[in-house]
Design a protein that fits this description.
12 helices
């Protein structure tokens, strides 16, 4: 029974089922790319154009952020180069602001909701928090979807590797079976021939029957082996497609993760939920601050005075310094601010370099594709015009 089961297993057709994924994320990126892989190089032009455009837009956004950080450095230099009497006036106002903030902090310390650093951070970005929340949510949702897609693609890759190993094992068994069966049949035929000669009996019919069975089994073996080879190639194609898609998804993943990590670093948080929590606590504290400031004085007047003074002497973004009074008073605090800005600027430079590399790689791929497929020149020209891309 064991031998018969093994023979049955060898000649039973392998059912290869391909898992169907619903690529919901990255603007249906995966599902579109799966179709393009099948349709050939002409459709791949669209993907390359998308890559170039995405990288270009990313670089534009990063440049805006980079210019803003650079502007902060310029403001610091402007403040540090002010005349001594003006600097002293700024320091005096900053000390009053710091004093009132310290009084407020002591008043709120019993609640111990969030740190002074987090309070000032939320205070500094309060006007743009709706945009920040939306950006963080989009990036975190994208991160989850991309990771899920990559997990699915990894599972598909492993599944196809398992199928290939199973096919190779069956082909090995098939070869062994053919050798054993053929050798056994040859020995039986030889034995019958010898018996026929010794007994002078006619055993031609049994010998012919055995030969016919051998030929039939050989034909069945060849057909089965060819089917297995075809199934193996199909499995390899599915595995290669999963690998190609995974490599392309990684580009999106790197960009998304870099932007997310930059924002986490910028706001000194670990997640959107933490940012939302900080804001909730900030609102409670602000309400209490307002009540307290009725008896201790209002910071707004001092903040406005500082802002007007800084603006008068050429500081482009004076509003933020009311929340950075410690840096105006203590040079060590100013060094910390510069270090933080340097870290932000370095990360922005790295992201811009990565996206520029993506853009140039996309242009290079399109040029090489045109060399290999000159018949696509007109179609490529139309696509480049649609995307407003200059190939030069």
């Amino acid at each position: 029974m064991g031998f018969l089961s093994a023979v049955k297993d060898i000649f039973t057709k392998t059912e290869i089922t391909e898992e169907t994924f619903e690529y919901e994320s990255i603007d249906s990126f995966l599902s579109r790319r799966e179709q393009q892989e099948e349709e050939g190089p002409s459709e791949d032009i669209i993907y390359k154009c998308d890559q170039i455009v995405d990288a270009t837009y990313q670089m534009e956004d990063l440049r805006v952020e980079y210019e803003m950080v650079t502007s902060y450095f310029t403001d610091i230099q402007t403040i540090e180069e002010l005349p001594q009497d003006v600097r002293q006036e700024i320091i005096n106002i900053a000390k009053k602001i710091a004093f009132l903030e310290n009084e407020t902090t002591q008043f709120l310390h019993s609640d111990d909701r969030i740190s002074d650093e987090n309070f000032r951070m939320i205070q500094g970005v309060e006007k743009e928090l709706t945009q920040v929340f939306g950006q963080l949510k989009d990036l975190e949702d994208m991160d989850m979807k991309i990771k899920r897609d990559m997990k699915h693609l990894e599972a598909e890759k492993n599944s196809q590797e398992y199928i290939q190993a199973s096919i190779e094992e069956r082909q090995s068994k098939l070869r062994m079976f053919l050798i054993i069966f053929g050798t056994s049949a040859a020995l039986i035929v030889l034995t019958l021939a010898v018996v026929g000669l010794l007994t002078e009996s006619s055993l031609l019919i049994p010998i012919l029957l055995i030969i016919l069975v051998v030929l039939a089994m050989a034909a069945l073996t060849v057909v089965t082996y060819r089917n297995l080879s075809f199934e193996f190639k199909m499995s390899e194609a599915r595995e290669n497609r999963a690998i190609n898609l995974m490599n392309k998804v990684k580009i999106k993943y790197i960009n998304n993760t870099s932007t997310l990590e930059y924002l986490y670093s910028k706001y000194n948080i670990k997640s959107l939920r933490e940012m939302e929590y900080l804001y909730e606590q900030y609102l409670i504290m602000v309400d209490e601050v307002r009540k307290y400031q009725r008896t201790t004085g209002d910071l707004r007047e001092l903040s406005e005075s500082l802002t007007k003074l800084l603006f008068q002497y050429g500081v482009k973004d004076p509003d933020i310094w009311a929340k950075q009074s410690a840096a105006l008073i203590d040079n060590r605090e100013m060094v910390e601010v510069k270090h933080s800005l340097n870290v932000r600027r370095q990360k922005l430079r790295e992201q811009m370099a990565y996206n520029e590399e993506l853009r140039l790689a996309g242009l290079k791929d399109i040029r090489e594709m045109l060399k290999e497929n000159p018949e696509l020149r007109e179609q490529v020209k139309r696509e480049l015009e649609i995307y407003h891309i200059n190939l030069q």
